[in-house]
Amino acid sequence: MTDFGPAIATAYRAEGAVISLGRGVHEGAVVPEAVVQIPLAMMNRHGLVAGATGTGKTKTLQGIAEQLSAAGVAVFVADVKGDLSGLAAPGEQTGAAAKRASELGTAYTPAGFPVEFLSLGGLGPGVPVRATVSDFGPQLLGKVLQANDTQEQSLDLVFHYADEKQLPLLDLSDLRALLTFLASDDGKAELEGIGGLSGQTVGVLLRALIGLQDGGGEELFGEPMFQIADLLRTAPDGRGIVSCLELAAVQEHPELFSTALMWLLAELFEALPEAGDLDRPKLVFFLDEAHLLFDGATKAFLDAIERTVRLIRSKGVGVFFVTQTPKDVPPAVLAQLGNRIQHALRAFTPDDAKDLRATVSTFPKSEFYDLAELLTQLGIGEAAVTILSESGVPTPVVHARLPAPASRMAPADDVDAAAKASPLHAKYGTRVDSESAREKLAARTAAAAQAAPTPVGAPPEPEPEHKEAAKAAGGGVETVSKFLQSRQGKQLQRQVVRGVFGMLKKRL
Ligand SMILES: Nc1ncnc2c1ncn2[C@@H]1O[C@H](COP(=O)(O)OP(=O)(O)O)[C@@H](O)[C@H]1O
Ligand SMILES: [Mg+2]
Fold it and tell me: Are residues 8 and 75 in the same domain?
């Protein structure tokens, strides 16, 4: 049999910077020579952190996040339970973390990290992250509304109609106003003009929308919209900023927050240029409770996730999914996760046993362990690890005992105060309500009630401030280019650049 220590040390050796995953364990003992680590350059090859509740997934994520920050890489983490906020504060000099370091034969140096606390639309502590309905796009919105294929396609038609008629969909009341209009007698002819959209589906979408409005959608959708470049910052000392999206307050709306996470990822995808292989990623994105993203998703939605994950790697972004078992992740996505950190699985019920077998089958064969046995016997903060080496080769599975985070394992003291003190709070703290579809449709209905009915299919009457732009639109090349520079012109151009998930495409 191969000698464990040197075999692991060789397989995991790296020339460049690394993220430490602790030391290998063999025959019940830590083997100091068996250094387990992920090359920083391989962090864009994505990863999976899996395991039953309480096995150490979140602390693993915390430890990786802080090492990335220290290496100057920006990090985004979804803090579903609020237990990652401790990233901002140094850990305790004595206690579980220090004990773990001594087991691994390393020094324990407590440290806090530069953290930006975010929240969805200001629900709970954190700088509010908002998206406009239009930018969110029909597919992601369809996912939140738990729409089926037909409903999702219908939403797509409604978005195109809004683009065409220059009805800005900023918040949910805009979409609601538009759907209400299409369902009304006034809107009937318009509805018929949008081939393939049925009044019945509009009704279903309207009802779903009301549910979403109460379920956090009211807060999430609107302006000012979060600018994705704010996730890609470094602190003055050169460390990467950890953006910590605090989700505890919206825990009971998993469809909302999981889709919002996908929106952020898709925004990154749309905004970042191709970067090729870098010596370290620009950002690593951790998607906690990842199964929620895939549950009940349409084929089109799953395809869009798969494509985003596949292509975002060459833009310098690594994505780590955090979930209970690998089976939560669709095979086409799982196949792209080069770095695997599998914490303990339970094997109580027949279903558990089936999961266990399925998980074992996703790992390479091991010369050192019986994997089914290993996966059920791993201690807290231990994992079965296989990663991509610097040369891109999968490493042998190793039972790793992971280091504890240098930051605090318990939540931070005052997330709310920290968020309010941030410069981002000045930028995003207050909601603004610009003129949008709701006002435009209301004005139109009022005008129709007063005077002769508006001719069916006519574009909405331009507002005074848009008159000039509208006039310009009637002229030659020069005036057209002037029109395209105008606010309305810009709005019009946006409709042709809806990308992945039907989102608006943009550049940083
Ligand atoms: N690497 C580690 N070193 C020391 N203790 C750990 C480590 N990982 C986890 N723990 C302990 O286990 C507890 C549960 O871990 P956690 O990451 O919250 O589990 P999960 O996210 O899988 O539910 C933590 O609060 C901590 O006390
Ligand atoms: Mg957890």
Answer: yes
Please check whether residues 212 and 75 belong to one and the same domain: no
CB 51 within 8 A of CB 66: no
**238 assigned to some structural domain:** yes
153 lies in which domain range?
A: 132-222
Does the Cβ of 64 fall within 6 Å of ligand 1?
no
> What is the arithmetic mean of pLDDT over 154-171?
92
What does the radius of gyration of the chain's CA atoms come to, in whole angstroms?
25
Q: Give me 328's structure tokens.
A: 């939560």
Whether 94 has a pLDDT exceeding 80, the answer reads yes
The verdict on 185 and 172 lying in the same domain is yes
Which pLDDT score, from 0 to 100, does residue 70 have? 98
> Tens of pLDDT along 268-277?
999 999 998 8
Kind and range of the H or E run holding 303: helix 299-312
What integer pLDDT is reported at residue 138 of this predicted model?
92
Nearest in space to 300 (alpha carbons), one of 132, 153, 155: 153
Q: Are residues 14 and 107 in the same domain?
A: yes
Residue closest by Cα to atom 15 of ligand 1: 56
Which of the ligands is closest to the CA of residue 100?
1
Q: Which residues contact 279 (CB under 8 A, 6 or more apart)?
A: 16, 17, 40, 41
User: How long is the chain?
Assistant: 508
85 within a domain of the structure (yes/no): yes
* Sheet containing strand 18-26, strands side by side: 29-39, 18-26, 398-401, 382-386, 339-342, 47-50, 317-323, 283-287, 74-79, 242-246, 115-120, 127-129
Pair (206, 230) in one structural domain: no
Mapped onto helix, strand or coil, the DSSP state of residue 259 is helix
pLDDT digits 0-9 by tens, 191-221: 888 877 888 999 999 999 999 999 999 999 9
Residues 15 and 115 both lie in one domain: yes
Residues paired with 117 in a beta bridge: 244
Q: What domain count does the chain have?
A: 3
Ligand 1 near 54 CB (within 6 A) = yes
**Cβ pair 85, 117 in contact under 8 A:** yes
Candidate of 23, 30, 59 to mutate for ligand 1, largest count of ligand atoms within 8 Å of Cβ: 59
* Same domain, yes or no: 335 and 473: no
CA of 54 to the centre of ligand 2 (A): 7
Domain final position from 222, 244, 271: 222
Note whether 85 and 110 are within 8 A (CB).
no
Q: How far is the CA of 125 from the centre of ligand 1 (A)?
A: 23
